[in-house]
Fold these 2 entries.
Entry 1:
Amino acid sequence: MPAEPADPSQTDQPIEPIDALRRIAFLMERTRGQTRRIEAFRKAAATVVRTGRDELARRAEAGTLTELPAIGKSTATVITQALAGRRPDYLLDLERSGAAGPLVDGGERLAARLRGDLHSHSNWSDGGSPIEEMVATAMELGREYLALTDHSRGLRVANGLSEERLVRQLGVVDAINGHLQGQGFTLLRGIEVDILDDGSLDQEPELLERLDVVVASVHSKLRSPADVMTARMLGAVRNPRTNVLGHCTGRLVEGGRGTRPPSSFDARAVFEACAEHDVAVEINSRPERCDPPDELITLALETGCLFSIDTDSHAPGQLDFLAYGAARAQRLGVPAERIVTTWERDRLLEWAAQRP
Ligand SMILES: [Zn+2]
Ligand SMILES: [Zn+2]
């Protein structure tokens, strides 16, 4: 009988070169390491996938790994050490530095109940990784479902998807699900659709109708007067295609993009509409967003809203950010039952398919 494959997260175990490169990238992504460094490991992993193990071994022996595309000195060392049956130093250093440890104190009870994530991006829009890599990591993290929600056409800076590209992407999603049958995981057909100035959604209604999950978010004119912003958000929430109201205040509390205050709007009116139209208020787990702020989560809770704890991942390792959202929701007393991402897939899909 073949031996069980070694678990790449077991730190005393040898590891395959591809697993080592992917795990290094994952750990750096979840702990918000330098993008350029992470990219080097992701690109090296892509090269390793395309290269036979024999060729890798031959090149490691001859010292010519760096002649392969996207393999540099550090990644060649990782590959060489892994091939020699050692856990690479680079990985060990990361693991010893705590990169694999808990991201946040608290929220563990709720985090354990989260089954999925309704907000993620691939390299089809402004994410950094192919859909397949997002899926592989979501499965490794034990998720039962992940919604692929690349940006809509109007968000050009984020390479938003035209109608045609979205239709093409749906084919890819179907194909991936076809391969994954019986494995307890579903990639949901989704979109993060822009809420336009007039409150309409930036994609054809017939196309939105074909999706499992629609996250609607504001990405422009965040400083509009409160009455304008309220009307715009109400338009989106009342749209029967909308399932989740994404990062509702648009604030940024830290990080490379700087900070940004929350938008002004009548939160009570917006949340009342969410409750009435069965739209979940997103608890966006990204540390730099931390959106909505505590007082608005509390208000949404009082108003009777459902919630969706999402990562808004732009890289596979960020799929682990759910821990941040779970910690906030648990601290603020949001019951698990009110969080749609604790629901089983079929219940979630049934809820999302209701178009009142
Ligand atoms: Zn967004
Ligand atoms: Zn997003």
Entry 2:
Amino acid sequence: MKIRNIDLGPRPVLLAPMEDVTDIGFRLLCRSLGASMVYSEFVASDALVRMVGKSLDKLRVSPDERPVAIQIYGKDPIAMRDAAQIVVEKAHPDVLDLNFGCPVKRVAGKGAGAGLLQNIPLLLDITRHVVDAVSVPVTAKTRLGWDSEHLVITSLAEQLQDCGIEALTIHGRTRAQMYQGQADHSLIGEVRRNPRIHIPIIANGDIADGKTAQRLFDDLGVDAVMVGRATFGCPWIFKEIRDHLDGTSLDVSQAISTDAAPLSDAWKLAVLKQQVNLSVERCGERSGILHSRRHLAATPLFKGIPDFRPLRIAILRAETTEELFALMDEAFQKLCAAREHKPNV
Ligand SMILES: Cc1cc2nc3c(=O)[nH]c(=O)nc-3n(C[C@H](O)[C@H](O)[C@H](O)COP(=O)(O)O)c2cc1C
């Protein structure tokens, strides 16, 4: 699959943009474990045009993570246009993505993100302003519609394509659903089957294993899949999905320095420690550990350890890397003991 001349290979699996999650360290890790392309968290266009340092920091890109998309959001066409130019000048992203799907009140409630699904003319005006202003491919990410009464995606996809969007990611929920219920991929398939649509269609929402990804490629014909929450504490999901789709084993020997076999529990522990180390290197010990907590809380590695709760709480309260790694080692020992006792834990 290609976005303009960026070749993402057959059946690409992408890392979704996620605020406070898809920083440069996590993106690099996911790329090294099989993600075909990665997205930055969204960056506010009005903060970029005011050159707010924290927002400019989010534009840092490493050559090793390419292809990478930087995503911006906002509701003012001029600010979005100017922010897009700033992003291209400072980060040289492979792709510039427009957020038309964020459901949270502080964004959608103010008319940006998914809020623009209630004002399609403005959404299209923003898109045209950005497409005309930058030379990199512009893509968009959105939802099925504002609510179940307004499932606009079929016509919106055509309109966005007509504005010059070069790929469209669709999260199979409405804004009203927020993150509730099961994602519905059927309308994504409908968009894909529309003979007028020639841009790549990327499916998103509740893709957490190779089987689901394969079904979306085979049955709905989507061009790529995008994985979000299932990456929390589980960046190896890209290798798992890749191995399933390709029927081979992706070589990840360069990604993690350990002798443990890829996808073994010992290897996964090494991946998680590397993730913490990357975070600590980037933000300092305290913030780096804080930043890793979401992943440590969600990781499937420690699932099934008997009486894990007190140790889990201790892991989530650890304040130094040394303390944290000792607790993670203890959890790992408990996991090994539980597996010996009951091999399918
Ligand atoms: C913590 C968090 C932050 C998110 N931030 C963004 C964002 O910055 N931009 C965006 O387009 N979507 C964002 N999303 C939505 C995801 O990209 C994705 O569309 C959604 O989680 C559904 O996919 P999933 O079921 O694979 O998680 C975020 C989701 C989560 C859980």
